[in-house]
Amino acid sequence: MAPLSIQSGVKYAKTLLPKTLMRSMSTVQTTISRHMLPLNRPRCFRVCTYRRMRRRSLTASSLDELLEQAARVFMMSYQFLTLVLEEDGTVVDSEEFFQSLPNSTPLMVLEKGEMWTESKVRAEMTFIIVAELL
């Protein structure tokens, strides 16, 4: 008896499976893909500039889209923008990290040469709380 090729093995396996089962497996795969791997949906973010004087709510479904919107709204050069978490200055530099952020995350857009600094109001509040504890 001659050995089976991979193609003939696949054809033989298909004859064993009823077409309804093959269709239902395809439906299950599509359903799992929809629920487990959702499409990037637009989400709202609160974006401010370096000095925290200008703030806007921007809606985007990707990091690039949000940077483009910030560049347009704040009249900045897109090529030199960096996006960071306003709270602690963590750089948002990958699409995966961006997608993990919850809605309404406060972000800061920085131009070339600007570096994140803690908010003066937040620093004063921290100082007051620490002083009260002492």
TrEMBL record:
Source taxon at top rank: Eukaryota
One GO term (biological process): regulation of apoptotic process
Keyword field: Apoptosis
Domain CIDE-N: 41-118
Matching PROSITE patterns: CIDE_N (PS51135)
Name under which the protein is recorded: CIDE-N domain-containing protein
Annotated organism of origin: Oreochromis aureus
Classification of source organism: Eukaryota, Metazoa, Chordata, Craniata, Vertebrata
